[in-house]
Amino acid sequence: MAQFDVVGIGNAIVDVVARVEEEFLSRHDMRKGAMALIDAEAAAKLYAAMPAGIESSGGSAANTCAVAAGFGARVAYLGKVADDQLGGVFRHDITAAGVHFPSAPLAGGVPTARCLIMVTPDGQRTMNTYLGACVAFGEDDVDTKLVADASVLYLEGYLFDPPAAQAAFRRAAAAAHAAGRQVALSLSDAFCVDRHRAAFLDLVRGEVDILFANETEITSLYEANRFEDALEQARTDVGLAALTRSEAGSVIVRGAETVEILAAPATVVDTTGAGDAYAAGFLAGLTQGRALPVCGRLGSLAAAAVIGRYGARPEGDLRALAATAG
Asked: Looking at residue 165, what is its pLDDT?
């Protein structure tokens, strides 16, 4: 039996989430709903201009790992932070969430990454990310023994931006498959897919067993005009795909099987982390051996719990929430 249900690999980032008006995005030349990479100088200026916000450990895969742990899954995480104050904040937060985090900090060099997240009144989030120490994550940071001791390896698409990450992904995937484990990938962001489409397609077709994506991301990956066409491509390329469509729910495909999941009722306050939470609920259910409709409902419930509040992680008893999924 594996020691862990899920081990995630991703950008270890401290999130700063603040509410802003539409005018703030225009004034700072931001593309609403997108994630942009910025340098240290731009990060400092934007942080100074932002209203007061909520600061916590974050990053897409880290959020998924923390929420999955809240559902009772046994979870570990690999990511690079600096040996600085924010690095200490990240380590404390993710460990307190019940996630094993053995990665050694980066000594010297650039500081810990941070993501400055602007939430407009309609709940849309616009992210500006300074990767900092994240770019130092490479093949040598992949703990292959840890990867081999987890039922599912979960990879975050955002990590494709640093230059050494693609090699790290492949080393981790090889270790997982050598141990008979499954590899899951979240596409993370359509603009990230646009930057690395060929590499993503190669990884999906050669290494990925479970694919997570939203409608925009999956149509971007396959350069498809219709969601239905992209879904059929995903059905061919991976063993299992869970594709989210916001208020239209999600569609899960596995071989000839298709499962449609309704979105759980929610009042949208902040969409930050919705996809991460969906993946967490889904993987928590999957590694517990639950049926696909239940896995999808767990994902939907987790996403609804996140978008009803500010920040990327839900509050409350997730195990009790899971009991309502069937």
From this structure: 87
CATH topology for 4-11+59-88+137-322?
A: UDP-N-acetylmuramoyl-L-alanine:D-glutamate ligase (3.40.1190)
Q: Which of 254, 242, 257, 256 lies closest to 303, judged by CA?
A: 242
Are 306 and 159 contacting, i.e. CB atoms less than 8 angstroms apart?
Answer: no
Across the chain, where does the E strand assignment appear? 4-9, 13-19, 35-37, 54-58, 75-78, 99-100, 113-119, 125-130, 150-156, 182-186, 210-214, 240-244, 250-254, 257-261
How does pLDDT run across 63-121, given as a tens digit for each residue? Answer: 999 999 999 999 999 999 999 988 998 999 999 999 999 999 998 888 899 989 999 99
> What per-residue confidence (pLDDT) applies to 161?
75
Q: Are 147 and 153 in contact (CB under 8 A)?
A: yes
The pair of three-digit structure tokens given for residue 127, joined into one six-digit string: 């992210």
